[in-house]
Amino acid sequence: MKSLRVLWLWLAPWVLAVASGYQDKPEPERGPGPDLPLPQSAEQYPYYGNTPEEMLPFRGVEPYHRFWLTRLPFRGPGRDYPDPPGLKSLKVGLLSPAAYGPEGARGARTRRGVLLAFEEENAQRQPGQLPFELVQRQDSPQWGSAANIVVEFKDNDVLGYLGTVDGDATHVALRVSLKIETYIINTSDPDPSLTETQIPWLTRIFPDDRQQGWRLAYLIIKQRGCKRVAILRESSRPGRMGVLHFANYIRRLGAPAVAHLLYAAGDHHLDSQLHAIQAADPDAVVFYGQPEDIGYAVATFRRAGLRAQFFGFDRLKEEGFVQAAGPAAEGTTITYFFDPDRPDKPWVEFVRRFVKRWGEKPDVYAAYGYDGAKLMMEAINHAGPNRFRVRDYLATLDEWDGVTGHMIFDARWDNIAPISTAEYKQGKWHFEPFPELKRPARPRGPTQASASGVSAR
Amino acid sequence: MQWSVIQWRSRSARWLTLGCLLIAGPVPGAGAARELDQGVPFPLLEGFENFGEKDGIPGHKVHSVLKTREGQLWIGTFDGLCVRQADGKFRRYGPEEGLSHKLVLCLAEDTNTGDLWIGTARGLNRFSGGKFTTYTQTDSGLPNNVVYGVDVVGETVWAATAAGAGALNLRTGAWKIYDQNNTLMHEPWCYAITKSPEFVYIGVWGGGILEHNPKTGSFKEYRDPDGDFQFVLAADAGPVGDITSWVYWEEGVLWQATYFGMSRYDGARWRTWVEGKSPLLSNFVNFVTAHHRVAWIGTDRGVSVTDATNWVNYAVSEKGEGTVEIHQPHQPVVRQRLATTLANGFVLGIWVDDQEVWFATSNGLTRGRYAPQDKAARVAEAQP
């Protein structure tokens, strides 16, 4: 025993010194929202989808190497290539999901926004200016189909293309884009991993599930004070990727999911999922899947007496959710990108023109489709019919204003303009105020996003 | 003054460098690389010769290059397949001759038959007896028409496609598809194929490297150990990233190219390299091949050559000049201009043997000429 006491006396200062190094640092003072700046260099872009530091992986451990703090340049040639001879139009591709697939309706709405943008632009062309031409192709819900379509785009000599909703199809398209060196503007894919590939041939203007994930995690854990979160999501790649980061964020906030259940798309036999979630006694349930399926699940869970708060992603704003959920939709809170009833002139005017053209109000897919098409045509107008200069224009943008609002692009070319939340109360979605980015949107000083040093600033 | 010594770490290094300066003298370019070869255990290049449209190569971009066992040089370009003729000019084959698509992405030789296998943006092709036979996803078992990588493993042709890996048994004509349904792939996005005596390795976009044992039918995957794309948590812990852009095996060493740096696996230990923390020219690695355990790495800013200890980088400066940069342990890094340079720093494919090195670049084809030396086998002897 004596020898043990001696050993302890000898070790104690060391143990205490080491332990003090691992003690939690005092919490920094918090602002009103979750947009605390990360302790990173002013020469770098906002990191990791603008995620607050407390939700970052391996918090407190500086990794050997970080990516995505600066933009990857395209160092290949092509900017000085002569314009293609005999051009009769300026072609842009549109890759849409299959009309009969799960994303068909969203793709159709995207297409309406894109077509409106093309019609407006072509109506304004001056004599001597080539018209824009949309080369439209429909994907099929089969792995790799998008790759073949992008090759068709190349055969048609498009200068850039837009698309698509499916994460897997856009991934596949991006890989071909790298080979054919043709830029994509994505207007509708929320898959966080899309831009993680570091391919400098894509800009995404649609807020992704990483941003929605941390915003939702912040709302549920920090603002609502929930401690027991259950997840029910579609058994699919979109479902897996959709909640991947959310599940990590709540774990990092000290509340790992108490249940994580899957269901097959369209399956209305949810008894086993319900029982498992009830057994976990959650105070919050987060849903990810098609709005109609989630609406059915929400109604089923409420009917069974589950009293937890319900949360979801942007798609629950679609009418299919409320129609399927009925009264059970009450109190559901989702992440959303902008208030569709906002009164600013660009949005109001766009809605008016869209209604006039299509006889219905635009949703986010139509609106981002419109913005994506406008941005692509702006780049071609600026750069001329050269795919490499079009790339430079788009890949060097730090900010851009569309009808959907002010966009801020990070080092992965993701739009990280802060998003907000909406709660369904008394038959209507109520939108929380939209926060501002509380850090510089762009690095201080010159940044090189292209080998030619072209900057759109 | 052609020498630029950027680090003076030790007195001996200074004397060594000054000695080299005296030996090399002020003569730039050819031959100078020879004097830089102080202890680099693999051959250096001393010059480059470029080929482009004037030589019959259609367009700018050359995706792949292959020298057959009989010495014929083939290239896959943005606008067709080409072979170098006796007069040095390139003859083009396109869809007019039966090629399934003009955009050629990859090449492989069946060394048993001499047949050439050509992966394009729309189908796989076999060139045999002067004729093309095409395989597409609608008339064969090819999983997808976009063929990023191809290799011949015994009597099987493996194709890495946008929707899985396809294996064509040349004896029976039967296809087998490997994708998310029967392997460990989450997504069937395959980029490259390589082989060892025991295994077939598939480079998977987002899935790291898949090791397949054809005898047992089993699969094993090598994945980024930290599970996050946005950083490398620790060096040398496993594959540097999961987005494999190319993979190559030779002499017991597996090399992985990614857009996040490079990895090397010798069956026991992983090594990783990222730009800025190693001599690797760029994290954006398009291609890797190996010869005598020396990797030739095609990046977007030139070529890095390494035996995992020593590094030699060939790049094109902003002024368009060729540079060579030598990194050796405990020695100052040395840079030198070369009289000739790569056709372009964006390197998409490499072919290397004991006689020469060929580079497929985004702006033409380049032949690299070795400086005279006699140590091609030293690396193999030195490495475990």
Brief summary:
The complex is a heterodimer of chains A (457) and B (384). Chain A has 457 residues and is α/β, with parallel strands linked by helices.
Describe the structure.
Chain A has 457 residues and is an alpha/beta fold. Chain A folds into two domains: 90-207 and 341-418, Response regulator (Rossmann fold), CATH 3.40.50.2300; 210-336, Rossmann fold (3-Layer(aba) Sandwich). Helices cover 37% and strands 15% of the residues of chain A. Chain A has twelve helices and 15 strands. In chain A, strands 8-7-9-10-11-14-15 form a seven-stranded mixed beta sheet, with helices on both faces. A five-stranded parallel beta sheet of chain A has the order 3-2-4-5-6, with helices on both faces. In chain A, strands 12-13 form a two-stranded antiparallel sheet. In chain A, strand 10 (309-312), helix 9 (319-325) and strand 11 form a beta-alpha-beta unit. In chain A, helix 2 (104-123) crosses helix 11, helix 5 (209-223) runs parallel beside helix 6 and helix 11 (364-383) packs across helix 12. The longest helix of chain A has 21 residues, at 2-22. Chain A is globular and about 70 Å long. Mean pLDDT of chain A is 88; it is low at 11-33, 35-39 and 446-457. Chain B is mainly beta and 384 residues long. Chain B has one domain: YVTN repeat-like/Quinoprotein amine dehydrogenase (Methylamine Dehydrogenase, Chain H), CATH 2.130.10. Chain B is built from three helices and 32 strands. Chain B has a seven-stranded antiparallel beta sheet with strand order 1-29-28-27-26-25-24. In chain B, strands 2-32-31-30 form a four-stranded antiparallel beta sheet. The longest helix of chain B is centred in the N-terminal third of the chain and has 14 residues, at 11-24. Chain B is globular, with a radius of gyration of 21 Å. The relative contact order of chain B is 0.15. At the A-B interface, strand 1, helix 3 and helix 4 of A face strand 19 of B. Strand 1 (65-66) of chain A pairs antiparallel with strand 19 of chain B.
